[in-house]
Write a structure and sequence with these properties.
9 helices; globular; Rossmann fold; homodimer; 7-stranded mixed sheet
Chain lengths: ~350, ~350
Amino acid sequence: MSGTNQLRQSVVLKRRPKGEPRVEDFETVTERLPEPGAGEVVTRTLWLSIDPYMRGRLREEQTYAAAIQIGEVMTGESVGEVIASADPRFAVGDIVVGSRGWQTHSVTPGDRLVKIPHGVHPSTYLGVLGMPGATAYAGVTEIIKPKKGETIVVSAASGAVGSVAGQIAKRAGARVVGIAGGAEKCLWVQDNLGFDDCIDHRSIDLARELRTACPNGIDGYFENVGGAVQQAVFDQLNRHARVAMCGMVSQYNEAEFPPGPNLGFVVGKAVLIQGFIVSDRPERLPEWRKLATPWVADGSLVYREDIHDGLERAPEALAGILGGRNFGKLLIQVAYQKG
Amino acid sequence: MSGTNQLRQSVVLKRRPKGEPRVEDFETVTERLPEPGAGEVVTRTLWLSIDPYMRGRLREEQTYAAAIQIGEVMTGESVGEVIASADPRFAVGDIVVGSRGWQTHSVTPGDRLVKIPHGVHPSTYLGVLGMPGATAYAGVTEIIKPKKGETIVVSAASGAVGSVAGQIAKRAGARVVGIAGGAEKCLWVQDNLGFDDCIDHRSIDLARELRTACPNGIDGYFENVGGAVQQAVFDQLNRHARVAMCGMVSQYNEAEFPPGPNLGFVVGKAVLIQGFIVSDRPERLPEWRKLATPWVADGSLVYREDIHDGLERAPEALAGILGGRNFGKLLIQVAYQKG
């Protein structure tokens, strides 16, 4: 047991954000890294994942997970390098992933860590081969179940979840239409991800663009954003359409949520709307990793990372993802891997 | 081939209702009853079913079924007595059920008729053992899937569908809470149907009454009404709640539908909202009839009929069911069975 006689920095919640999170809502605290107890593993953080769901944890009220308290370290998935271990399954130098929080170092029970195999780029275990990828996989295969020739729409199509969701639907033989913010993202979604079309949600007449892109209506919708995009898509759903409700990022900064769609169409068109949280299905993540690792290796599953340097950038990165200013899977590079 | 040399009356749509349907929106036409063609069966109507879905057919736009055109006979399920038959499966005197329209007599292909067995009261094939009963059965068993000890809420609880839905959920061991309009209906739902509680949707603080009746939250909701009731129930849904969207009768007379609930909770609580139409599952009706006929016979499945006399009462009866003025399964007794 050695190498732990050092300092760690953690980002803690200073006050609950009103609207978009600001740098001043957080503070960085420095403390001596504790020694690991029995079964614990000490890791140095390499990559921290920033995800929209984190905004929900900053609210007073509990959602599906407990709220983060003032003074508490921000939660989050991250990749780290083992620097000390009291769990025989982990050795110094191993690269692991787990829910390790916004900090430069972590002392975590080995049971909560997963070793990342050699030959896989570690950051992918936070994105395309991580929780976002497994979320896309669960939503498309369990809820939307696209059939050949059906039209599937994916919002936040260039994001970590949406980009994978659309590619899975394409593999199932569906016509896939993305919705993203701005021409650059839309072009990337079409040209690099291979979606059949992609619409800019800032366009003047979203409903019309959607009708043009989906001449046979919409059979499945992977929902990441809510708001006006949701209404436009719902208006064009076909009978027996399936909606995988993954997120509604457009309202995460709002104190009060606006009214939603009248649900008469759900009856008349026999529509399925299903919310889901990937952590309810822990078996899906290893299943997805096994399935998709070869696709990432051979380049047939495309992903893009949006990397910011330094733990201190995490708060502004979170604000950015909520405002749609990221482009691809948002990551903080907290430190560099040795060797 | 005889007995058809007579007149029939049919209720046709005269103009599309604005708001609540009025008697003047319909007219009765009289014509000579045509002779049956090959395979057709001539019937004299005994019972006509009046159901909320009929309002949707009066709208200009198509929903899941084609709109009724001006001058066209109103569609509807009814029970009739065979008075002539060119289908060897049906004999004069047989009692049959089918989609026969708002008319005193009907000439229908035998393939679209079902013979009602002896020993069953014919009108039940329009209610508790008919489409409304099968709708309740499909919604509860396919979507809500109540588990022992869970809390299930049913709106329009004294109606043809809601009364059966709640009793099925009770048989599954759930705590069942009804919502109905007025003290008389609520008492009947509790005392006669055996629901654990029933709330008057006209009460001053519906949310509070619901919280009191559902101290452990709501795990399943059988939705028949929409509007403020829907919002109150949605606010108290538990994680992984299931909502069977059967109807939203509170808005069927509206020209423009009001906004609905913000769907953030669907994500956060991983809620399922599923619209369904029983005609998409034709196999459920005979299955339900087989299952429930003994329960009706032994009195363990309770139903109530609200009977109006004479075909000419059908338009005002339709207005009444949309306004919640019926009490139980709404039927028009068009003629009396002989013998």
